[in-house]
Amino acid sequence: GSCAVVIVAAGSGQRLGFGVPKARVPLGGEPMLAHAVLGVVNAGIAAQICIAIPPGDPEMAGICADLQEQAGPGILWSVVEGGADRSESVRAALAVMAEGITTVLVHDGARPLTPSGVFERVTAALRDGARAVIPALAVVDTIKTVVPTELPATGAGVEKVSGTPPRSRLRAVQTPQGFELETLRRAHAHALTLDAAAAAQVTDDAMLVEAIGEDVYVVQGSAHSLKITTPTDLLLAEAMLQGPLR
Ligand code: CTP
Ligand code: MG
């Protein structure tokens, strides 16, 4: 079957704080989105590329047109307007999947440096029968769960630890996340039945697939596949671009 790659780039980039959508923020002199999209093109796994961009952003539409030209013929190209949250942006892209597409990778436009190897590992797991697969890394920090509480003497609002999940079983999850198209469509149809509070907790597509009871397989991610969220991440990505780290 044929594989589509959805690149979600419709976010506003509040935490990066550049005052423009994150996808347009320059990295190595090029818009962040250009790195992400050309990384997908160069991985050589996409029959279709669909980019979700902020509604009413002609500059971003122009960047996408340039990227289509750079990619050359041979890849079906779609650009859609994203929605109010990431899930809505994914659903806008799922609505334009071409005839014959059987698997889809959903990738953050905010991960400009994802190496080809990650795309290959995700694609290989789908080929080997996984209906859902995510790239992930072992976590380096000790992670605690917390609950709200008050300090005994003052009643000041603080948090206290409610548990320490064993670190050996924790993974930090990245994209591209790969799915059988039909499975991801079912997961997103289910997502539409969630109330607003539950919908607000959804941070990736795999969560939605877990919720419909499908197994989600895990392959090795990459340190280079970091998501640019804060200015520190951007500094790190600039250093990665300069250095021999790729
Ligand atoms: N995204 C999207 N549509 C949205 C929100 C997010 O396509 N309505 C995309 C972003 O463009 C990004 C990815 O989802 O590539 C991960 O989201 P995040 O890192 O949170 O990006 P932003 O939402 O842009 O950043 P922030 O939350 O700091 O505003
Ligand atoms: Mg966001």
From TrEMBL:
Its EC number is 2.7.7.60. It comes from Arthrobacter silviterrae. CDD domains: CDP-ME_synthetase (cd02516). Pathway: Isoprenoid biosynthesis; isopentenyl diphosphate biosynthesis via DXP pathway; isopentenyl diphosphate from 1-deoxy-D-xylulose 5-phosphate: step 2/6. Pfam families: IspD. Keywords: Isoprene biosynthesis, Nucleotidyltransferase, Transferase. Catalyzes the formation of 4-diphosphocytidyl-2-C-methyl-D-erythritol from CTP and 2-C-methyl-D-erythritol 4-phosphate (MEP). Gene3D superfamilies: Spore Coat Polysaccharide Biosynthesis Protein SpsA, Chain A. The record marks R15, K22 as: Transition state stabilizer. Belongs to the IspD/TarI cytidylyltransferase family. IspD subfamily. The record marks R167, K227 as: Positions MEP for the nucleophilic attack. It catalyses: 2-C-methyl-D-erythritol 4-phosphate + CTP + H(+) = 4-CDP-2-C-methyl-D-erythritol + diphosphate. The gene is ispD. InterPro entries: IspD, IspD/TarI, IspD/TarI_cytidylyltransf_bact, ISPD_synthase_CS, Nucleotide-diphossugar_trans. GO terms for molecular function: 2-C-methyl-D-erythritol 4-phosphate cytidylyltransferase activity. HAMAP family: IspD. The keyword Transport does not apply. This is 2-C-methyl-D-erythritol 4-phosphate cytidylyltransferase. The keyword Isomerase does not apply.
